[in-house]
Amino acid sequence: RVVGLTARRAGGKMVKVKATEGVICNAPMWSLRKLIKNEKALDILSGRVDDNAGKVESGSGSSVAAQSWMTDPEVDPKTGRGSVIRPARQEQQQSSEETMTTADDSLLAKCDNAEMTGSFLHLHVALDATDLDLDSLEPHYTVMDRGLEGDDRIINGVPDGPCGELNMIAVSNPCVLDRTLAPEGYVIVHAYGAGNEPYDIWKSESNEEETTTSTAAGLDGEE
After folding, report:
1. Mapping DSSP to helix (H, G, I), strand (E, B) and coil, where does residue 57 land?
2. Over the stretch 119-174, which tens digit does the pLDDT of each residue have?
3. What is the C-alpha separation between 135 and 213, in angstroms, rounded?
4. Can you tell me the distance from the alpha carbon of 118 to that of 192, in angstroms, rounded to the nearest whole number?
5. DSSP sequence for 152-210
6. What is this structure's pTM?
7. Which of 72, 136, 153, 199 has its CA 20 to 30 A from that of 66?
């Protein structure tokens, strides 16, 4: 049972934060600051508390994380492919790390400034396994809509490839290895995206407002 977390502060000291009201799991690190409501916990994780002198100043604050992908401004992400993984890390992120002060070298500052990976969309389903020969199946598959080389489309100067937007889906079929993971006559399947695209392409008009308020609690920038 998860009751909290252990974090390492600047200088190497370990700090234990125990949850008294609840624990949120599988949430993106970039949402950690918004999820913690306890001011004392925020002070500790933000590096604003000194063991001997009490609170100290910190330049750390919430910021916009660098993105691992580039999005074509002329393409609506809801209507077509328009993003690619950056060929190199964002320069602003490199410069941010080089100039980070000791006060900013806290767990929350590192979470805020970590480069944000693409969206992981997860699908967990139970399937009727009647007449299915599990012994002939593999426990894991990688499915590519456009293949390893992708197609001839180039976005922001980056050619398509295995990690192109909406190309790769990984599928896990764990019941091949352990039949007891699902009730007799069924199998469970876990399918997920390659973590190479922004969440915007999965949004719909009907859930956009709800997504804005629930992203922090339910998605792993990761979805």
Report:
1. coil
2. 778 889 999 999 999 899 999 999 999 999 999 988 888 899 988 888 999 999 99
3. 44
4. 12
5. S-EETTEE--TTSTTTEEEEE-GGGT-GGGS-TTEEEEEEEE-S-S-GGGG--TTTHHH
6. 0.58
7. 153
